[in-house]
Amino acid sequence: MRYLSLFVLLLFAAVACSTTEQAVNNTIEEARENLQSQNEEIVSNLNLEDYRTQLSDAYAYRENKIPDAFNQIRVEQEEEKDLYEGYRIQIYSGQSVVEADTMAGNFRAWADTTIVGYQPDTYTFFRTPFYRVHVGDFHERDRAIQFSNIVKRYFKDAWVVYDRVNPARVPADTTVIETQ
User: What is the Cα 108 distance to its own chain's centre?
Assistant: First the structure.
């Protein structure tokens, strides 16, 4: 009895599902046919020449104007400057350490008695194969050139070189370097 009632129940469910599936499929097919016939009517009545444009006409009516608010905003990025980069004046380059020390001593004596407004340091070091004597510390090349013109009066072979400087010894921009 149980098996019989279960069988009847399954048979009823199978018949109910099959009829619903057929009804859905028929409705979908009818909708597709209606839509296709409507599209054919629309396309046949549509004149595409009215909607075509020349490539040069595209966006001809638009102006690419930047709003004034954006033109007023100016963001200036200051470059971070390495305080240890700068210039010095080289007054000696040679293979004798004695001559390098003598030249550094002569410069210190001359600078103490001649230069007013700035007391430059002297740096003696060895870079293969020469001993070199550099004087002064400057961030700007123009200031180093001005100072080298003063130094060249006594040290004829002086010239400006790019070097690492001591930021604490760089003269202020307002410092006036003169001779007595």
Answer: 44
**DSSP readout, the chain?**
-HHHHHHHHHHHHHHHHHHHHHHHHHHHHHHHHHHHHHHHHHHHH--GGGT---GGGTTTT------HHHHH---PPPPPPPTTEEEEEEEEEES-HHHHHHHHHHHHHHHHHHEES----EEEEEETTEEEEEEEEESSHHHHHHHHHHHTTT-TT-EEEEEE--GGGSPPTTPPPEE-
- Of the candidates 162, 145, 170, which has an alpha carbon nearest to the alpha carbon of residue 83? 170
Q: What is the pTM of this model?
A: 0.57
Cα dihedral: 104, 147, 162, 102 (round 10):
-10
Task: State pLDDT tens for residues 28-87.
Answer: 788 777 777 776 666 666 666 666 666 556 666 667 777 777 777 777 777 788 899 999
Q: What is the pLDDT of residue 3?
A: 64
The torsion angle over the Cα atoms of residues 105, 109, 112 and 118, rounded to 10 degrees, is -40
